[in-house]
């Protein structure tokens, strides 16, 4: 049908209001433009399409199948920009709509113009470029809405990319662009105003000028060269002639925006290599960090520029790159009246680590590790250093293990003050938890176990065994959490390979039946973490599982160390929970209770029931409810352990760092918590109503 089909389709679409029908129609138009030559009826079709722009309608939030405003806008945008035949008719009305009062209309219009830049003939764009650039400049400088400014800058880049000359840039014999005149390229519309502002006594809106220049420069290699070559000599000359801090900061800020366009190897401005000495003099790679707060804003701007010099392909040699990285590192490390300098230095190092990980590893990390181990280093500074290292490691997989290994080395070598062991161990744990949950967590965890978790565990064991003050309980717990985070990611075969050494080290201590309060028992948290992080399929290296659990129960009820007791109960609960056979679970539970219980009841017997209930209630095992009823009986009989029995109910369903948790492969049956509530709450309320003692009632409320 050809032209008849195009005209008929346009007539059929005219007046349509249903968003669902419009969505289908807008999706048909780009297909139609590819299948049929729409040239003869382009105006009819465009008039019908464009009457819907900008499109708005009320979206039914309650209806997940309804069309969203954003998807309909995108479909209309694709229809408007699907054919170069629409260019002559679209550009002027689109530019007119950039003056709309509505922020959403402005953004929609700028996004449509960005799409049009690559769809329409560049010659169609040029006549209205000056008007468009003026409006973009106004929206960027006024900046009433950041989203509008961002969309406007994207449009500027897209438009300049479309009209940019294809020929390579040539700057003539003197290396500078000629004086501006009416015959020059559309870049004049940005450059003239920028150069006027940069040469004025007072620079107005330097941040916005920089953004406009950056968008223009990023649009093509040619434009990057023209913008850089026009702006750089002006900034260099002014920096040589002014000592006013605010003016210097504004000039360098504009220069930073221009340089950022050259960080892409395909767009790097040729003139920058010729002006390398000027740039090095401006940014002073080896300059010290000013302590005076008055200079901090200028220094932060300079640090950003140094970062750009590092990122520009092939601009700095190896020694200059090292010097630059060390300057940024000192900004992150050294004390400054304005903490923003330290924060900016750390932020820039995170950015650089993602693109230059090898250089950051060799030039930056040694400075951080040395700073951590300085004499009398403050806790505040250590916290700042560790936060920076943590951010760098988490952002860059390539540098994660060197940072972790370095932190472990500082702890285990004794160089790091014991006062900072906890903060360092916490940072290691957080980094490992983040890495382990990443997309390649399963791949890197075997190395993290061997290179980080095991060395930390060995150090803690040796320090604890020698009664060193370094092995504080809170540090041991952080290391146990670290072990849990990575060990749970290993497969069962790899877990079994590591478990033998841990059982050889700790099992005798764990089974020790001794009433003495032994400080070494705090190390059993490490043992518990290894065992509790195992998969249900992982085989523990014991000959008789029932005898092993029974031995742990016997030791737990006799020990005076709550570290010892808790570790034993955590392991017992974990094994019971992960035992799939109901008969074996019942046998193991009887063995544990048989070895633990005697004529008298102690706190340990009460807590053991809590842990068994935690293990079995979560897998809907009747043995767990037997323990719960036993505990409730203690409460209603007003036993001397009623308070302990009541408080311990948080063990049954509460959180734990590694014992019987979903993260450590615990078994949690469907609706187990609901069943627990349905079974236990009625019994508690009935006992409360029948109780005559206020003490019993208080315990039941707990």
TrEMBL record:
Taxonomic superkingdom: Eukaryota
Database matches in PANTHER family: DNA REPAIR/TRANSCRIPTION PROTEIN MET18/MMS19, MMS19 NUCLEOTIDE EXCISION REPAIR PROTEIN HOMOLOG
Identification of the protein by name: MMS19 nucleotide excision repair protein
Organism: Coemansia guatemalensis
GO cellular component, one term: nucleus
Cellular compartments annotated: Nucleus
A Pfam family reported for this protein in Swiss-Prot or TrEMBL: MMS19_C
Function text: Key component of the cytosolic iron-sulfur protein assembly (CIA) complex, a multiprotein complex that mediates the incorporation of iron-sulfur cluster into apoproteins specifically involved in DNA metabolism and genomic integrity. In the CIA complex, MMS19 acts as an adapter between early-acting CIA components and a subset of cellular target iron-sulfur proteins.
Family: Belongs to the MET18/MMS19 family.
Residues covered by the MMS19 C-terminal domain: 386-700
Principal localisation: nucleus
Keywords: DNA damage, DNA repair, Nucleus, Repeat
Domain MMS19 N-terminal: 1-141
GO biological process: DNA repair; iron-sulfur cluster assembly; protein maturation
